Amino acid sequence: MALYFEDLLVGYTDSFGSITVDRDEVIAFATAYDPQAFHLSDEGGAANPIFGRLAASGWHTAAMTMRMAIDHWSTIGVQSRGAAGLEELSWPKPTYPGDTLRAEAEVLEARPLTSLPDLGVLKVRTIVFNQHDQPVMRQIANLLIQRRPA
Amino acid sequence: MALYFEDLLVGYTDSFGSITVDRDEVIAFATAYDPQAFHLSDEGGAANPIFGRLAASGWHTAAMTMRMAIDHWSTIGVQSRGAAGLEELSWPKPTYPGDTLRAEAEVLEARPLTSLPDLGVLKVRTIVFNQHDQPVMRQIANLLIQRRPA
């Protein structure tokens, strides 16, 4: 099965996930890419007025969200070719080790890509929730999707 | 040395990095978080009309940029407490294995955080360049910075 640009209409909604946030992976990701005290240890997290305890790097939450999306897209056949970028990326609540994340997505806009006529651009809003149904990440991304072959 | 919110005025500019993009790490990051063919192998990259060859996940570029920022901030003493989010995150050019990245940042706005008076919010634009001085990532982030103790 393959889902092309033409199949993913404005208003298309989808839910995907879940993934449970692993404490060792939180520390390993932060050690590699975001080594701030509040992403590395319980003590560092407790000293942070926003987090209060060990919290995942926002980039790690974004990366886990991408993984949930790719696993889902490969199941349903979305013909992704990459992304141009995001218009919004925010973390309304922290992500903590042990949280279970899931995502809800909606296609907001769709337009052909004039510079590469085999591709279209979908503007997609994705909201990531924890197990308490609190939003922990919001993003609006411009995704590059293969157009249906003629 | 410590740099607080009050030390990082609008118009403050900074340059940091570099980091050289490791091919094995590109594949390892993508395997964990963004397993799309063009981030996993030469063949997958060659088949992608944007990338043309194996390219890093944009999230990996973002993560490497964060690492460059943290290494720099820890040297100059920036009292970061996290980030609320980004208003823009884009990848104007691909990042390829072997590229050497560096970043330039500028403070665009500064405001106290009313909900947590010990913190201030800096809006910072960061542009990441490759060794050809081509921009490979742009971001505008709202960073949470400790205010100077009274």
TrEMBL record, chains A, B:
Pfam families: MaoC_dehydratas (PF01575). The lineage of its organism: Bacteria, Pseudomonadati, Pseudomonadota, Alphaproteobacteria, Sphingomonadales. This is Acyl dehydratase. SUPFAM superfamilies: Thioesterase/thiol ester dehydrase-isomerase (SSF54637). Residues 18-112 form the MaoC-like domain. InterPro entries: HotDog_dom_sf, MaoC-like_dom, MCH/BMMD. It comes from Sphingomonas vulcanisoli. It comes from the Bacteria.
